[in-house]
Write a structure and sequence with these properties.
heterodimer, A: about 270 residues, mainly alpha, MetI-like fold, about 0% strand, globular, B: about 260 residues, alpha/beta, Rossmann fold, four-stranded antiparallel sheet, about 35% helix
Chain lengths: ~270, ~260
């Protein structure tokens, strides 16, 4: 039994190492300053800076919208709403939303944000679509985080004559910060990993976006396209390396911020 | 009855015909008692007898539970607490200490300053004074004065419980409710908390729920024995333990059940 457990974890780690190792092996030769910070040249060569900028744009905008809405919704569902059929229905709906393939969201975004709202193929249309995709993730993880706050904290705070809102802001939200943060990190992963929905809403223009209303290409879409069109696995792998590094940087900074936030209480 | 007269003080809390229901299940039956000012009143009885439930009606903590219905009167300082709607004000007047220490994940200082800050006190000097005074009042100042800014959760259980008491008295309440405050503590910490209770009753009216009959005998002036949601006997502590009037009280305090 112990052997099985050991083997299972070994297999998991091995798969991860093989994938990351393969990508690094394939792509590392292309990585240099010019590749990362250079402007893209359609005739070959050049860098991926426009895609990096586009990716960061979409992450920041989507999270800037999804995080506050998601946290507030979760707080309402968990702390304020009367637990009954309506709340159960809302929970069921948010859970179902996480299971819908992203291409469906992409189609919706293309119809609603791009066409109906006349945003055009743009970073903002893609970001709004991504907001809808990650919203259920933020809500679910925040709800779970709120659930783990011991009831004794609530009671202790309320018994001191504080209002529900004071208790929420001073005690409950700070102690569920790590859980909320892991939801945000998960969302970041989801945003960075998304290709189909972005492809349909932001388009594939491989140039530096001039504003959030420009059509542009994220790293993931770029990686997909260079494999698809040019069959250039090495280039796709190099883009992959940059993606992995961006994700790691974002995770570290998120953890760092949360440490700072919880330290602020002492 | 002469003994009872002797100890008759001013009633701080008057409870009359209190009934409490969790949904359809009745948990308290016609509970009536007067709790005296600046005395320690112990509530004893077997598990599930309603003593904690009763304690929590006094600062309306049961309001947090869905489906709780209450009728009857609880009058504190001439105000029926279930008819006046200001729960916040009520709870600033009544401190509570829980079964397990429940300090927040903050520094010792911030824990004690939490209540006053929520009341809008921002002045650093005033807060410093309240924190020191409260920690001294809870007989823990000397143990924590050099580490006020470090996490409260790093203290031992007994220390945490005394900081909880400090946090409660930082609100300058009239009444302190204690729900089995030593059940999670070791004997030495328990002793310290009991000594503290003896100190505190000079200034506060204390109501304490306890499983430990020796504790009730040691710390309280009056004792109410609860059984199945009713008060069987309420008298001066000495009488309850050495000369109970009801057979059920005698069986319980002599350890025949519960």
């Amino acid at each position: 039994m112990r052997g099985m457990l050991w083997l299972s974890s070994l297999v998991t780690v091995a798969i991860l190492l093989i994938i990351v190792g393969y990508i690094f092996y394939k792509g590392f030769r292309l990585i240099n300053f010019e590749f990362i910070f250079g402007d893209y040249s359609p005739t070959g060569g050049g860098g991926i800076w426009p895609m990096i900028v586009t990716t960061v744009y979409t992450i920041v905008i989507s999270l800037a919208i999804a995080t506050p809405i998601g946290i507030l919704a979760a707080v309402y569902l968990q702390e304020y709403a009367k637990q009954g059929r309506l709340v159960r229905t809302i929970r069921f709906a948010t859970e179902s939303l996480t299971g819908i393939p992203s291409i469906i969201y992409g189609l919706f975004g293309a119809v609603f944000f791009v066409t109906t709202l006349k945003l055009g193929m743009s970073i903002i249309a893609a970001s709004l679509t991504l907001t809808i995709i990650v919203l259920p993730v933020v809500i679910r993880t925040t709800e779970e985080a709120l659930k783990t706050v011991p009831a004794a904290y609530r009671e202790g705070s309320l018994a001191l004559g504080t209002t529900k809102l004071q208790t929420l802001i001073k005690v409950i939200l700070p102690s569920s910060m790590p859980g909320i943060l892991s939801g945000i990190i998960l969302s970041m992963g989801r945003i960075v990993g998304e290709s189909a929905a972005i492809f349909l809403t932001a388009g594939t223009v491989a140039a530096m976006p001039t504003s959030i209303f420009s059509s542009a290409r994220t790293l993931t879409v770029h990686s997909f396209l260079v494999t698809q069109e040019a069959g250039d696995i090495e280039l796709a792998a190099a883009v992959g390396i940059v993606l992995i590094v961006i994700i790691l940087l974002l995770n570290f900074s998120a953890t760092f911020i949360s440490k700072k936030l919880s330290k602020a209480d002492y | 009855m002469s003994l009872m007269k002797q100890s008759e003080g001013t009633a701080k809390i008057n409870v009359k015909d209190l009934n409490l229901y969790y949904g359809d299940k009745q948990a308290l039956f016609d509970v009536s008692l007067n709790i005296e000012e600046k005395k320690v009143t112990a509530l004893i009885g077997p598990s599930g007898c309603g003593k904690s439930t009763f304690l929590r009606t006094l600062n309306r903590m049961n309001d947090l539970i869905d489906g709780v219905k209450i009728n009857g009167d609880i009058v504190i300082d001439n105000e029926d607490i279930y008819k006046s709607s200001d729960v916040i004000k009520l709870r600033t007047k009544i401190g509570m200490v829980f079964q397990k220490p429940n300090l927040f994940p903050m520094s010792i200082y911030d824990n004690v300053a939490y209540g006053p800050r929520a009341q809008g006190i921002k002045n650093k000097k005033v807060l410093n004074e309240i924190v020191e005074e409260s920690l001294r009042g809870a007989a823990i100042w000397d143990e924590v004065k050099d580490r006020l800014k470090s996490s409260a959760l790093g203290l031992s259980g007994g220390q945490q419980q005394r900081v909880c008491i400090a946090r409660a008295i930082a609100m300058k309440p009239d009444i302190i409710l204690m729900d089995e405050p030593t059940s999670a503590l070791d004997p030495i910490s328990t002793l310290k908390v009991e000594e503290l209770i003896a100190q505190l009753k000079k200034e506060y009216t204390i109501v304490i729920v306890t499983h430990n009959m020796q504790q009730a005998a040691r710390v309280s002036d009056k004792t109410a024995f609860f059984l199945n949601g009713e008060i069987v006997e309420y008298d001066v502590t000495n009488n309850v333990f050495s000369n109970p009037k009801d057979q059920r009280t005698e069986d319980y305090v002599t350890g025949r059940f519960g």
